[in-house]
Amino acid sequence: MHLPSSALFKAINLDKIRKVFPQLDANIDLLSHIQNYEYKNKKIAAVSLFHRSALVFWPTDKSGIQSFEKLEFLGDSFLNYFVAGLAMSLYPNFSEGELSKLRASIVGTEHLAE
Fold first, then answer.
1. What's the angle, vertex CA 37, arms to CA 35 and CA 40, rounded to 5?
2. Residue 103, exposed/middle/buried by CB under 10 A (0-12, 13-18, 19+)?
3. Can you state the angle between helices 69-90 and 96-107, rounded to 10 degrees?
4. Which residues, in sequence order, are CB contacts of 68 under 8 Å at separation 6+?
5. C-alpha to C-alpha distance for 84 and 92, rounded to whole angstroms
6. Closest CA to 42 of 55, 28, 54
7. Which pTM value belongs to this model?
8. CB contact at 8 A, 57 and 19
9. Which of 11, 48, 59, 96 yields a CA-CA distance of 20 to 30 A from 36?
10. CA-CA distance, 53 to 46, in Å (whole number)?
C-alpha cells in the first residue's frame, strides 16, 4: 500500500491552512482527545480533517494545501469491514442480502452524520 510520502507532508503549509481554517488546531486537539492519541506531526491530522470538496473555499493560491481523499476511501473500507463483521456475529441467521442492507443502513451518510 502506498500512503502519502513524507515529502508530500513536508509540502503542506499549516500556516496557510490555519488562515483559512482558524479552528484547525482546536479540531486537531479534539481529534487527539477522542482518539486518545497525541499527533507528533499535526500535518497528518490536518489532512484527515478536510475533504477535496472544501478546496473550493480556498484562496486561489492552493500551493501547500492538499486533500488526501484516498484516506477517506481507506477509512470507509475499514468502517464497512468492521460493521459487516459485527453484523455477522450479532445476526448469524441473516442472509447476505439482509446483512448488506443492515450494513448499508448503518454506514450510510445520513446515519453517520447523526
1. 140
2. buried
3. 130
4. 4, 47, 48
5. 11
6. 28
7. 0.52
8. no
9. 11
10. 15
**Which amino acid is located at 46 in the chain?**
A
Cell of 103: 450494513
* DSSP codes joined into one string, the chain: --PPPHHHHHT--HHHHHHH-TTHHHHHHHHHHHHT---SSHHHHHHHT--GGGGGGS-S--TT----HHHHHHHHHHHHHHHHHHHHHH-TT--HHHHHHHHHHHHSHHHHH-
Please give the span between the terminal C-alpha atoms of the chain, in angstroms, as a whole number. Answer: 32
Contact partners, residue 30, CB within 8 Å, separation at least 6: none
For the chain, list residues with pLDDT below 50: 1
**61-74 pLDDT, tens digit each:** 555 556 666 677 88
- Look up residue 43 and give its three cell numbers: 500535518
Q: How far is CA 80 from the centre of its chain?
A: 14
